[in-house]
Amino acid sequence: MNMIFDAAGQGMPLPGKIASEGARTVRAGFIPLVDSAVLVAATEFGFAHREGITLDLVKDVSWANVRDRLAFRQFDVAHMLSPMPVASMLGLGSNPSATIAPYSLGRGGNAITLSTRLNARMQAEGGLAEPENALECARALERVIRRMKERGEPLPTLAVTYPFSSHNYEFRYWLAAGGIDPDSDVRLVVVPPPLTSDALAAGAIDGFCVGAPWNMVATERGVGCIVATKRDIWPSAPEKVLGMRPQWAETNPETVSRLIVALDAAARWCDQPENHPALAEALADPRYVAAPVDILRRVLAGQFTIDPQGRQRVIKDYFVFHAGHANCPRPSHALWIYSQMIRWGQSAFSSKGAEAAASACRPDLYRRALGGDEIGLTVEAGFIDGHAFDPAKIEDYVASFPVKGRRVTAPQEV
């Protein structure tokens, strides 16, 4: 009998093959990032096929496109930013359409990269001595921005990939931890992930927060310096999820379960270092990430070139595809995302809003496919500024920050 294994290593029989729905093709939209690896591995290495599913992966150019094509039923499921289903359930954004996340695609992968020019000023004018210390980098940038204001210089233009994104909230969190107001001390804009390095090279932006491999692409091109990673800001932060319409999930319950089983097996495979060479080769394919295979291998290993001078940094568990319950969608994470929407003026707190935000995560569908114990509300710690998040006290949490938004605002799209 085929088996899957829970976190404790206990064997559980696989659910029966799809019967009432039949073997089917599932169309999945994705953005060319390393954190699409679980979907790519499920397709390329037979995990989906073994469960009676053909995954049809469709590469897209922006998160707004992915959102709209899922809403308009061009996609059955999608590789999505973890805040996107939360925003959809809160009715936020230009085209809100109910979206749920029954499976997380792992943790990690983001980084903040600044232009070499801005980084040089942080060292010369901001007193930056430790380029690998993310908090000191933020404080050095604050000192530079203060001088820019005194001299009447244009303030830095910084890019995120989508207004309702981990990148937006992590960039803002890092900036604020250094004493920088993201709404008045810098200009935030939206740039699609594959274009961030080009925009930095052209001088259209002065920095960005994006997922791998585009940060190291910028350093390898000699145009950027990595000053912080997702793990520096909050190691437990959720990243990408599998998004789908609630109605599609209700209509295709066996397919959803079989898809989760396939993705879970793929995620377990992606976590194994001995599989990273094959995974990097698959991701390098033009159909997927289309980045140099050498960069992809190093990113998967957490081995970074952080600046054009070739300085190196090794980040343990930079990507976690499966370990530590990385794939269970947690309502507590959705509530942290909601707290950031409140902090930066995208939403206001209400008990109804908190319920809607938490409803974006569907651990019940995850457990229906894989079994295991419920992961409930937890107090999250490990943030760069020392704050701890209690999902039962969202209003107090937001009020505790000295830097927070004062108006409804979102990065402007360019």
Automatic annotation (TrEMBL):
What GO cellular-component annotations does this UniProt entry give?
Answer: endomembrane system
Q: Which CDD domains match?
A: PBP2_NrtA_CpmA_like
Give yes or no: UniProt keyword Cell inner membrane.
yes
Question: Where is the protein localized?
Answer: Endomembrane system
UniProt keywords (A-Z) are: Cell inner membrane, Cell membrane, Membrane, Transport
Looking up PANTHER family in the UniProt record yields:
ALIPHATIC SULFONATES-BINDING PROTEIN-RELATED, BLL4572 PROTEIN
Q: What is its main location?
A: membrane
Q: What is this protein called?
A: ABC transporter substrate-binding protein
Secretion signal span: none
Q: Which InterPro entries match?
A: NrtA/CpmA_ABC-bd_dom (IPR044527)
